[in-house]
Amino acid sequence: MIGGHIDESEFTQRIQELLNDKIDYLSNMRIGPPTKSAKLKSFIDMAGIEEATVVTYRDSFVKTMWDHGCHHKDLMMVSGTIVR
Asked: Given a cut of 70, is residue 10 above it in pLDDT?
């Protein structure tokens, strides 16, 4: 610090520390409940199912529903896209 003012390197260091603290805070903060995708991904990871992804489960679910007689509007209701 020179005459009540900080030099550029000290300023940069303080800013970096503040940013790191904010990043740590935000990364540890959880906003809202977990999403369906996060829950499904957690299930897949815990079950140890190899080469399975959230997308493959969704795709197979939609195909199975279609094969069993669901139509476009039915699938939209199941997915939460529309509400009756």
From this structure: yes
